[in-house]
Amino acid sequence: MSKRDVVFPAGRHALYEQHHYSPAIRSNGFLFVSGQVGSRADGSPEPELLDQVALAFKNLNGILDAAGSSFADVVDVTVFIVDPHSRFESIWPTVVKNHWGEAPYPNITCVGVTWLAGFDFEIKVIAKLPEG
Q1: 130: helix, strand or coil
Q2: 17: three-class secondary structure by DSSP
Q3: What are the φ and ψ backbone dihedral angles of 19, each rounded to 5 degrees?
Q4: What sections of the protein cross the membrane (predicted)?
Q5: How far is CA 5 from the centre of its chain?
């Protein structure tokens, strides 16, 4: 078995080393990105919900950029939201407006959860890497 082709975003190696997982793996023309949360450089959550969502996307985009990709290359999205009944309507219009880009949009699965280790929002994606 060959070694995994890991993609690290700039400046966040310690977080992944501490928790023993890879931020993203390149495989067969795709990029599989681990769930990204609105964590500050020290790993702590951004306190305000919409700021946390924006930071999760910033962290995600840092990984996509490190792989030579962007959100426009994303084909599959999974979003986890703590207490979606009370938070989805405040999160979703902002996400679509500020982070989603233009149609055609990626597919998505939204999952309501009870715990995200102190976070309220997490996003994981699969992107088709540009050829070449």
Answers
A1: coil
A2: helix
A3: -100, 0
A4: none
A5: 18
Angstrom distance (rounded) from CA 112 to CA 32: 21
**How would residue 13 be classed by pLDDT, with cut points 50, 70 and 90?**
low
| β 74-82/107-113 pair status | parallel
For residue 19, pLDDT over 70 is answered with yes
* CB distance 121 to 49 below 8 Å: yes
CA dist 81 and 110 (Å) reads: 7
CA dist list (Å): 41 to 1, 44, 48, 59, 89: 33, 7, 16, 10, 28
Q: 97: which 2 tokens?
A: 């407006």
Q: What is the pTM of this model?
A: 0.93
Question: Residue with structure tokens 């450089």?
Answer: 41
Q: Please give the backbone phi and psi of residue 26, each rounded to the nearest 5 degrees, phi first.
A: -90, 135
CB distance 79 to 123 below 8 Å: yes
Instruction: Tell me the two tokens of residue 22.
Output: 């890879």
